[in-house]
Amino acid sequence: MILTTHAIIGAAAAQIFPTRPITAFFAGFLSHFLIDSIPHWDYKLLSMKEDKNNYLNDDMILNDKFLIDLIKIGTDFWLGIILSLFLYTKLAGSDPTIILLGALGGISPDPLQFLYWKTKSRFLAPLQRFHHYIQDGMHFRNRPFIGMPLQILLNIIVVSLVIKFF
């Protein structure tokens, strides 16, 4: 899933705990893995180096392509944060702090993945294994015309449910 979807869904999950900020963050965090288990599309990262024999050796190379990826990821991140805040404050009247915490929780496993790639931390390795396991084979990588509409539909359904029930 792209970060925008993770932010919107994470913010939705946080709505379940409107007075518990830490729990709201972790609801968003858990939502990341839940929706990553659904077949989905991710945009290609140009600086990504995949090890076909051992995914724990994957990495992002810090080169000129990384700057392009950083712009792409940054745009995706901010779009997710802004849309989450707009949709849930304007349409559902939700607390912006809870929305922001849920959105950040929903996004956070991906930056932790990057941190793992750069440090190969034993502390982050179990999370990296789980993250890979949960979405292994769940990609429409070369089929954006299937994967993108499914993510848009998922977002519409979730936002509609939040507006209706919260």
Could you explain the architecture of this structure?
α1 crosses α4 (96-107) and α1 runs parallel beside α7. The chain has a two-stranded antiparallel ribbon with strand order 1-2. The model has no long low-confidence stretch (mean pLDDT 94). It has one domain (3-165). The chain is globular and about 45 Å long. The chain is 67% helix and 2% strand. By secondary structure, the protein is mainly α. The protein has helices spanning 3-14, 21-36, 64-91, 96-107, 109-119, 125-135, 144-165; strands spanning 48-49, 59-60.
Give the overall form.
Answer: globular
| Straight-line N-to-C gap | 24 Å
Number of beta strands: 2
Largest sheet: 2 strands, antiparallel
Instruction: Indicate how many domains the architecture comprises.
Output: 1
Residue runs with pLDDT of under 50 for 5 or more positions: none
Order of helices and strands: HHEEHHHHH
Kindly state the mean pLDDT as a whole number?
A: 94
Task: Report the portion of residues in β strands.
Answer: under 5%
Task: Give, in spatial order, the strands making up the sheet with the most strands.
Answer: 1-2
Helix coverage percent:
55-70%
**Rg, nearest Å:** 16 Å
The assigned structural class equals mainly alpha
- What's the tally of helices? 7
